[in-house]
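Request: Show me your protein:
***
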Amino acid sequence: MARKRDDTVKLVLRLPPALHRRLTHKATRKNRSLNSEMVLRLERSLFEVDDVDDLGALALLPLKAGLKFLNEKLDRILARLDAAEKARGEKK
């Protein structure tokens, strides 16, 4: 059966666990589904910045280790915030 132009496309996507947690956290805070949050962010990314040229992408490579460290630190902070919000919810 042919797909209509306005149908959505099902996609299997592999994400690093840390990215998945961050996206889930953002979606939950904004009362969106994870799918809606990801679609919105992808759409925004297409309008915010033009594609990075190859030289620009190469210039970012040394930052990868630092970004990984910051990402892990943010994950720990988000986990603590989630635990604090959960504890507040249980006290009510």
